[in-house]
Amino acid sequence: MAPRATQASQARRGGPSQSQRRRAADSEDEEEDFGAMDYDDDDDDGEGNMAGASQARTGAQSQADGARRRAGGTGGLSSEDIKRRANDLVRMALFEEPRRQTIRRADIIKKILPENSRGFNAVFDAAQRTLRHTFGMEMVELMTRSDRDAIGEEKKETGKKKNQASGTFILRSTLNPELIKLANKKNDKLLEEELNSLRALGLIGEEQEDQGYERPNGAILAWKPVEPVALTGILQLVLSLILANGRVLPEPQLKRQLKSFHLYFNTKLPSPAFSSRDEQTLFDHLSEMIKQNYLDRVRVPMPGGAPTGGARRKSRKAADEEEEGLYEWRWGSRAHAEIGEQNVAEFICEFMRRSWLDEQLKLLGEDEEDEERAGSSRRGKNAARNPRRRAEKEAELEDKAEKYGERLLKDVTRVAGSELTKRRGISTSTSKVTVGIRKEDPGRLWERRCPVTPDAVHELVREGVQVLIQPCERRVWSNEEFVKAGAEIHPTLEPANILVGIKETPLSELDRLKSPVNGRERTHVMFSHTAKGQPYNMPLLSRFVAGEGQSAHTSKLLPRLVDYELLTGADGKRVVGFGWFAGAAGLVEGLTASALDFLSLGVSSPFLYLPRPYSHPSLDDMRRSLRSVGDIISSKGMPKSAGPFVIAVTGNGNVATGALDLLKELPTCFVKAHDLPALVSDPATDLRKVYVIHVPSSAYLSRKGSENEFQREDYYANPESYESHFHEKIAPYTTVLINGAGWALGCPRILPSSVLPETIKLARNVGRSRFRTIADISCDINGGVEFVGRPCTIDDPFFYCDSTGKEVPASHSVQDDVVQIMSVDILPSELPLDASKHFSKALNPYLRSLVKMYEGASPTVEDRVAMDTVDRATIARGGELRPKHKWLEELLDKSGSARSVVPTSETDRTDLGAGSDLGGLDATPKSKSYYAPPSTSSGALPKKRRALLLGSGMVAKPAVDELLSRGDVELIIASNNLKEAQELAQYHDSQACKAVRLDASDKNMMSQLVSSADIVISLLPAPLHPPVAELCIEHKKHLVTASYISPAMQSLDSSARSSDVLLLNEIGLDPGIDHCSAVDLRDRIERDGHKVVSFVSWCGGLPAPEDSDVPLGMKFSWSPRGLLSAALNDARFKYNGKHQSISGQSLLSSYFPSVPLVRGLALEGLANRDSLPYAETYGLGSVDSMWDVFRGTLRYQGFSRVLDVFREIGLLSTSPKDAVMLNSTPGGWQSLVASSLARKLGNTHTTGDVWGMFRAVVGKERAEETWAVLEELSMVPSSFAGDLPPLPSTTSPVAPLDLLTTLLAHKLRYKPDERDMVILSHEIISVPKSSKTSRAVDPLTIHDAKKHTSTLVTYGTPSILGASAMARTVGLPLAIAALKVLDGKVAVRGVKGPGDCGRPLWGGVLEGLEERGIAMKEAVRPLSTRGDVVNLLDQDLFGRTDLPLTRGADGFTFGPMDRGLRSDPSWK
Length: 1468
Known about the structure:
8-stranded mixed sheet, alpha/beta
């Protein structure tokens, strides 16, 4: 970055041009002229009106803007005065910056606002608008030294405030870098006009031009000859050295590194243009950079204090070195603001990459010259001049150089110790992102909460976000507090991009806030109470969904609806909500209600002195009140006539936690269920304590017919088989019941209405004060406590009901057969201050992610996780319901004409959130869906359909996500790896998806799970499918798998048809998508009057080219065993009209060495099993009439030859006689090859000459080619152990294939930032149906023959929540097909593949995949030649050994081939 300010350099880094400085200088003595410049100060978004010139907000810059708002107000200045002073500040900034002088807040106040510093906020903001809009610049507040020092260090929790303002500013450009590049581009027409103008003015003539007089260069901006570019390079060099050394560089080390560039501190350099000196030293220049804040030279204390004694007698040189060692060089704050570490790191990497590439190209040229001179016999004298070969070599080197640069960038980041700071790029937005904070519906009198606090508003404003707030005097914070934080009062919030509130937006207000802002959709965030189909809010939901007759363009701009209720974290629990505060307030409401009830019994309770929650200013104040009451209980005890005071708490989430936390303020004693009878009947029980029982499910739930049996997993699977004994075991002994547990249909109620009479009777037999008060915090109307028939208000917090559940007047409270019920539904509103602070903090990352989305800023990993969470919480966007909520469509009145009946109280409890007990273990089983499909005509909810997924392997996640995208499906994931299954379930509603442990050999449990499901999807290993299919036939359940139809599975066809069961197989990728796409293509070909005579198909799952530089050219997101086993399968196919067969032992040596499917990829192929039956499967006709029928598997080049070596040395053997014991063999994994070779050669020792044995088996040439692969996989003694999996713990020998599977799965697993790739390609040749082809005929001889290609290339998504390409292409078709079967779209029965099931299945799968971005790309053209793929089959290329061991776009070899060393007989 240039250290001086000429016109061009200023434009590049943001300084004023000469014309700008002249413009300011001309008006220096005339304020009115300067103030009359054409600034658009009336534009509230001034910086946004320059197309493409608005700078995205950085932390430093937003701190600058935000710091100005801390004072608040205008300081009494008029608008004209603000404008005048702002222009003065602009002039001050423009004149200070060319000298690289910082602009200090104190100087601004002294020179611009000497008598009114309170107006700093308004003046600074107005100046910023002028700078951005008129000059394309902005003032940025520099970081303090402590902030700079903290970069890269671990953040520590301290009491000090982070990122404090420095009060020092610089100017920085907001111009788009692309605009600057364009302005520096030469334009011949402009050059000619400039020259003509200068000639006309007499400033230059032909004579001056001939003498080399300085001329314009035809660019809007231009570097001038006086600009010493070397100075810019030196600064860049020093910044690079500091960054590459971990952000801190001791001065002696800096000197040594500069010396390698022939630079010394006393090296003479040209002086900057503004300097009076002719020359300066390098140290002078660096000192100037320190003054300008580009660099920082810090003196560090000498270890051990001041020198003494002999230390004083050091030589002068040693003393100098010691003195030098006391200084460290670091980046200055201006470098962070103007340049950024990321840009410098990229400069380092580009410099090193280019240097490396230049050196390699030079060596390449030298090699070609040497070969030409030597007349190389290997390629011929003129081969080196072959331009095509030269271009290929250069392209190969370019690819390697690119990878080299990428690795360097990672290394620089690693050395720096943390993520590099950035000078943020240009935002495409033309205005600030605006967040609007709604006032709540005036009808909700007690709703005082706010989703965003003033502190959070202040932080948003500091980051450049405009915050508007609707005025409201009822809100817990005043309007003035929000204004002081930087918000602006706005009555309608119409300019807002993002609108946040607590409860639903009134329809009249929502109708005003539907239109887009600046051409972009709005986002509304609220508790919408629509996700469960609540009828009173369907008119609200209809505002977000396109109605009939709306255009596609209008629909796409409808607002987005995000519901707090659906914001779920990695554990499946909600991440924002008020559950804890509901529990805390609900406890106190329950205790105060109980005190009033005791009065009706003629008893005075200490809880009479406990104020209700809403009367406490804060949570701490409420805690103090509880402690005060606790002191009374500790000293005087509870009334004797009432007996021990027992509080029972149900639930296991935040609601229960809030209640239990507040109970700690009382003198409590926790007890168990079996303690209760003795506790309440013992006269000696200490009444100076409050007795609490946190009731677990096992204390009151049991299987029907077995009073004490409770199994958690069984309860999750079969909740309808359980019943509650709460009314017998718990309720009769309680004084107050705090219910924090939710309830769902099909689950046992804690207290059904039918047991209420018995419960009251049992309680009165124990004591008159028993079971008197229920505080139902869940407020689940007619739910877990069935006789809770209505919600209460804060004004009227409780009611009474009799033994029949009927509500009775409060005057009946003196009767013995009544129960008091507290069911206030907005309990968190009674603690508005603390509840809002908690909510705002939890909401913050998700609100910021929405802001970043509107800004178009590059998201961090944390941002992506937050954005994924917000996406899951989206109910409608772009005028459409999200797939999970599609079932709500039939409930909508899309015309929006229906009247919304917003309830006066909230019965859904969706605002509790964040781990509330709705669906918690002690509430309801997780298998019950929280989102119900539409009600039936009778009002009952239809039974949800249950899918059983067997297995939780690497391809399961997309299947789980797809199955649960439907609101009418619940899923059980059964796996022998429970942790893995739980990780799959954690991203979904905990009531719609659950994980259970399953041993596939446990037939009883398997049978139970199958019988409870409506459909079974199996991801188990293929040999386990037939036993599962037999159970499906027994229980009449459909089965879907992705595996090939085995003979054992085929034998079940008749039984399946007899039982009206579909056993659908081969519906993954290969087989699966290949079947569907082939049948679909054939169907369309036949409709066009043609028939298929040649069918060639290839498919392969591979690492993406950039991640393929590994042994075998393979990585695994699934078990490698299937791939290794497939390499031993026999193969049959037909090509060129002839049948071909390859035995399993010969498959790897009979490969196709080059398959040119995708440009730039070096692929090879293997025949895939028996291709011939697919002529019938795909409906292609008789094999006899086909010219080609071939299905192949794709791999990177070199795979087959290496794996064939593995086969030859016994590593692919599954025979028991070849099994080995690695855990008892010296060397462990490094003895694998030796052990396998010993078995093959009949040796008993594995510690001999492994290289010699290996070479003897496979031959010298193949041994030299593949030994490096064995070393890289740590299978031979000479290899480095590195990262290895644990050895098998079994005491029995293990087959080599299984050992190799374990090793490859570990060594070749995908890293988090790596991605895989799937390639699927069909090449079909068709001829007119009228052609006579009863036997195979070469299609080239047939008129009007056509070649059809259908290709899919898709990549995985390397992110926390992403999925591999293999997982998507296997899991998605599996799930889509399962849903088609579940919906009754597939009529066939028996053992079938997708091609047997008709267009509803295979067509539906293809359409579903296309909607999810996985689509076949098709082309058709007349047949002139038979195409590259078919030609492979004509060339007899099986087993070619003259091709290099290369693959991928870069053609890297598998590893170093040190042939000379390996061929030395003495080498071991």
